[in-house]
Amino acid sequence: MSGGLQRIYNSKIRSTRALTKVFRAQELIASSRIGSARSQQAAAEPYADAITAAVSAVAIHDHNLDHPMTRHKPDNHRAAVLVLGSDRGMAGSYVGAIIRRAESLLATLKEEDPEKIIDLYVAGRRAVGYFKYRNQELAHEWVYGSDHPTLDVCTEVANTLLDAFLLSTERGGVGEVYVVYTKFISLVAQEPRVVRILPLEIVNTEVTESGEPATKEQRREYPLYDFEPYEGLVLDALLPRYVAARVRSFMLEAAASEVASRQRAMHAAVDNAHQMIIKYSRYANAARQNDITQELTEIVSGADALGS
């Protein structure tokens, strides 16, 4: 019996060592991609900041701003929700956390308006599989390499959401667009968040992000612009680019969060695997000692029987 246990423990040790190599390789790959993911996110921020400043400048110039992308649709009971998941697993609780946040948003929207119809736009094979398994119809899905989204994919996602919002209510257009993504805080902290990107809210520049009145030093000085031919046409060009920049920023931040979560999860998996190997080695040694003790006992018993 002990010999059988020893074989079982040795088999577990071999399989755990094989898995350790996979976990270690995934950890190294994720570690090598974190820098690239963070660099892409940082490189996209100046453009997003610049186009945000341009939109704000137009809003300040025209206090009676009325544009299809800033106009609320009180009679529209349809909303679009973009869920940024991941294509691959082995990232710890990353996918589960974003799905729970998405489910919470869906429940909140339904509670606020029982008549609301929600169109799900899902990115990432894991998230797509989750919603399809629960027989939830998807308006659109993307499987694109969630840990390194390209500019073309980001633009396609943004244009799809924008087209759904600009479409008339009678033709199935949505009145609101939400994005569920993971905010990259640090290498050890990522937080699922929800942002409503449409209709656009023009933020008063005299108020800080925390909602407090801005001090003189915090106020941004916007240059004076001449608009040709008029503000509305400028907004027609700026606002789609503004939405595209925000969506790309969310996707790049989600990618950095996914890679960081995978690196952390694989590091923990390697540590756990080492602990399991140590535990199974102790069990195997104990089983081997039991075998030796049993053999010695049988030899001594046999010798006593012959002597008697």
Distance, first to last CA: 29 Å
Q: Biggest β-sheet, characterized?
A: 5 strands, mixed
CATH superfamily of the largest domain: ATP synthase, F1 complex, gamma subunit
Strand content: 5-15%
- Form type: elongated
CATH architecture of the largest domain: 3-Layer(aba) Sandwich
Average per-residue pLDDT, rounded, comes to: 82
Structural class: alpha/beta
CATH topology of the largest domain: Pyruvate Kinase, Chain: A, domain 1
Taken together, the total number of domains comes to 2
> What's the count of strands?
5
- Helix tally? 5
CATH class of the largest domain: Alpha Beta
Question: How would you characterize this protein structure?
Answer:
- There is one protein chain.
- By secondary structure, this protein is α/β, with parallel strands linked by helices.
- The chain has two domains: 69 residues, Orthogonal Bundle (Helix Hairpins), CATH 1.10.287; 215 residues, Pyruvate Kinase, Chain: A, domain 1 (3-Layer(aba) Sandwich).
- A five-stranded mixed sheet has the order 3-2-1-4-5, with helices on both faces.
- Strand 1, helix 2 and strand 2 form a beta-alpha-beta unit.
